[in-house]
Amino acid sequence: MFKKLLLLLLVCASVQLKAQINNGPKIQREFRAAWVASVANINWPSKPGLTSQQQQDEAIALLDMLQKNNFNAVIFQIRPQADAFYKSDLEPWSYYLTGEQGKAPDPYYDPLEFWVKAAHERGMELHVWLNPYRAHHVSGGPVSDLSVVKKHPDLVVKLKQGYWWFDPSKKGTQDLAASVVKDIVKRYDIDGVHFDDYFYPYAEYNGGADFPDDESYAANQKSGGKLSKGDWRRDHVNKFVKRIYKEIKAEKKFVKFGISPFGIWRPGYPESIRGMDQYDKLYADAKLWLNKGWIDYFMPQLYWQINNVPLSFPVLLAWWESENTKGRHMWPGLNSGIGGGEKNSDEIINQIMISRGITPKSPGVSHWSIGALTKHESLRNDLLAGPYKDEALVPVSPWLDKKAPQAPIMTHEDRGNDLYLKWTTKNEKEVFKYVVYTQYGDKWIYRTLNAKSSFFQVPKQMEVNPKTKAVANLKAIKVTAVGRTGNESDGEIITL
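Now predict its structure.
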């Protein structure tokens, strides 16, 4: 009897050890992003006309803050009003950069190129945020001769509040926006393309009046169109979203396409929900885009609190996830602007934890906006001490690519109190970042490094219990490579 029990225990121990060896250490997966708004100089740059160095210093401060607090992505607005935060032959330099539309930074630099490089150096994804239909913002200075308003007057209409808006039904509107997206994807090493909630404008932008496209709709009806005006408007937006997804993938399959629509599809979906009807007011059938899989990540702006019954965060998130029939990433947008302090931190942290529970296979959120994080130190500290305590990799996107980079070849060298790790990889272009795993006693910890890294120094001993001051020896090491779509390579576990 004793021998049988001993044999059973040995078999169980062997299976458990084999499982540990096969599975090895695991890094947390979660998308952690913040929006950086450039329109009206909300977040960056802090005002028009800063020197190039001042702009760059502000950008680095923002990215350093995100890196320090274990974020892994930034959503950077580069086309706020049919102008550009990058060198473009299609649209003029942005007013929000220099205070003059069409004027390049002086001394010259390309802000998007700078942001992409700086984000990647910090191991973060850079998603470009474009407004496809806003032609001129009321805060965007005078309408210049270089503005789309002057160059393509047939594509735009003026709204009563002073905004200029593209007519989404015009082929020229869709062609211009698509060419802008394709140009950016082709020329810059970005990780994602992002649209927000502005499709047809909110009613208040036109003084509560209907969007002024009677002429376009009349032409459609005259040529045999049968759709109601609402369906006709939605049809143009639907075709545009589908087109953008296809054109991005035709250029670079790994570049993700995401949309952050208004958080409610329609009142009554689900039953307890009340609020604005984006389907009927913005002519955005966001549920359709999600159902069809025309996006890689879906980021509904769920800016309401958990216990707000008619607008409840978890109720809305669970409903959107139930519509996620293609299994895309569901990463809600959070209103971190509610501020810091125990009550507000608890709300945001609870929303993060609820998101993890509702979307366990691909957790993640985005914070509106980075300004809230820079302003509220207590919120940052509470996030870092809580859900963002450990680094995380962006979840994989298996519908884009299941191929992981080749495993790095690692060597190590004894340097007294430390171990010096060095590695090489056969195809560096496949790598977005590396993960260094180290085991002290029974505990594995990890550290992520950018794609340019090729060495790392780790201590041979580490304190594993701050209370007792217990110290453990380094027992094992492992290095893996992570690709552009999040797939992680194998890596040999070297025991010491």
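The longest helix spans residues 229-251.
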